[in-house]
Design brief:
- It is a single chain.
- By secondary structure, the chain is α+β, with helices and mostly antiparallel strands.
- The chain has 2 domains: 50 residues, no CATH class; 81 residues.
- Helices cover 49% and strands 15% of the residues.
- The chain contains 3 helices and 5 strands, in the order βββαββαα.
- The strands form 2 sheets. Strands 1-2-3 form a 3-stranded antiparallel sheet.
- Strand 4 and strand 5 form a beta hairpin.
- The radius of gyration is 39 Å and the shape is rod-shaped.
- The relative contact order is 0.07.
């Protein structure tokens, strides 16, 4: 696009896509045709129009940005759900550890749920291979 000034008026020149001749119009007329998408004609009578108006471009940009916001909102929601699920699993595991410790301190066998006076002796005699991992309980470190 070529721009030039004649008698304090600004003109823009473009080339017709059909015949290749120059189309010269006032700059504000070019701008108006870009904004409204109306048809204009080259000197040889070929109808010309801008495929996308400025409003179309702005609408597309708005839609693209709205889509990006929605995608980020979804990502934030998914991460929040993952974090909450991990916290629930952690709390459940802590609860299981606490439950087993209390039961063991009360003399209840974690394997067969029987109460024994000498639990330590029972565990070494009746369940020598028992470990915390066998009962699917994970030892959780307390946070400082």
């Amino acid at each position: 696009m070529t721009t030039f000034i004649i008698n304090d008026d600004t003109y823009d020149a473009r080339t017709c896509g059909k015949c290749g001749c120059k189309i010269i119009m006032l700059a504000y007329v070019w701008k108006a045709r870009q904004d409204d998408g109306e048809t204009f004609y080259c000197p040889n009578g070929h109808p010309r129009a801008f495929a996308e108006t400025t409003a179309d471009k702005l609408r597309q940009e708005r839609d693209r940005l709205a889509q990006q916001i929605a995608e980020r909102d979804d990502a934030v929601r998914i991460e929040r759900e993952r974090r909450e699920a991990a916290e629930r699993r952690e709390n459940a595991a802590k609860g299981q550890v606490t439950k087993l410790r209390k039961r063991a301190s009360a003399g209840v066998c974690p394997c067969c749920n029987r109460t024994f006076i000498a639990l330590q002796r029972h565990m070494t005699q009746k369940h020598p291979g028992f470990t915390a991992e066998d009962s699917n309980v994970v030892e959780l470190k307390t946070r400082a």
